[in-house]
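Hey team,

Filing this mostly as a record. A colleague (T.K.) asked me to run one chain through the structure pipeline before their review meeting, and I want the input and output archived in the tracker in case anyone asks later how it was produced. No errors, nothing strange. Just documentation.

Input sequence:
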Amino acid sequence: MNSLDEAKFLDQNDPLSRYRNRFFHPENEIYFDGNSLGKMPIAAQYQLHKTIDEQWGKGLIGSWNNHWIDLPSRIAEKYSQLLGAKKDEIIIGESTSVRLYQSIHALLESNLYPKQLVTDTLNFPSDLYILDGLTRIFKIPKILKLDYSQEIEANVKKLKSSIKESPGIICLSLVSYKSSYLYPMKELNEWANNHRSIIVWDLSHAVGAVPIDFKASATLIATGCTYKYMNGGPGAPAFLFIEKKLQTQIHNPIQGWFGHQNPFNFSDKYIAANDINKFASGTPSVLSMQAMEAGIDIILEAGIKKIREKSILQSENLIDLVKKYLVPNGFHLESPRNSLYRGSHITLSHKSSWQICQTLISGNGNEPRIIPDFRPPNFIRFGITPLYTKHDEIYQLVKRLEAIVKTKSFLSFTLEKPKVT
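Output structure:
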């Protein structure tokens, strides 16, 4: 893609272009932050109004039986279609952090694997915090955290060697939040399974962007958020996958009433459900779940393979433009070059990354605001969200970045940062 005309031609012939109108788009804005918070599906807005006005407002308590009690399982079945799982292997609810805590606590308590916690420096900080907390609960001396001496990709050989030498419970993010590195999921699962280990996958930066098949990849347990590429809304509930056999061998450490075999018997004695529902805890978040269903519906309709194909095309075009226009102006590519090992965001760095981000967001006269995100120390992430990202927006982004650096307009912006970057 060498010109704006070529970008517009690609947009005109884009098989996914019809889905763009299924989302709300703020005026005069180009959005490259779907890897942090996906855009709002218009159907979600309609569903929330319906839920608030009719089901909650008029139906009140009767809406539990009429609309809400089966909502989590209905959404879970849709996620099972996307992720190559059985419908009774996925549960919706809670946050990714809670689900990760439940998963690793349950595995440690089960004694199915050696009590060794393994992760790496590419993992999301929240995951590291959870592992650290569990070392104190289970009196594990320390986490084995692999350092690859760079932040772009994992050293798979080193990772496999570590698993062989120190088997246990490994926590990894399938797509790294900084660089967008995509781990070889099947290869690592099979290696772990053959070496008395299990990998707990955090799929937050992968689900909805790359094809995932739990059965084909020999995955046993995984969790992830639904508010990024799944467009489920801010703080949308997470999903948890547990393979059927493993469900019978582990137990929910957070025993809440919705995980009871018969929650509405209100028994004083806890009897866990005999399926994936035993990993439920508190009352489902109805409003959040109603908002998130529109996102999974669009993904299933569009097809994850087509989404991935467009993601690779747009990412390759962005990288080519970066090499042509931005590398000569002080930018560095911080994502893997090979699309087989890359998710759906592209990370760049520059010594003035934070000020450049602010310049993009502020807009430039009649030109649209461009929304990326920033991650320390100097990374700018650009999320490719094929359901609504246009090819001409990618071209505009690169040319704007080139102009910002050449004119040094970023120097008028502060180095101070707000609470959310």
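Quick notes for T.K.: The chain has a mean pLDDT of 96. The longest helix spans residues 304-326.
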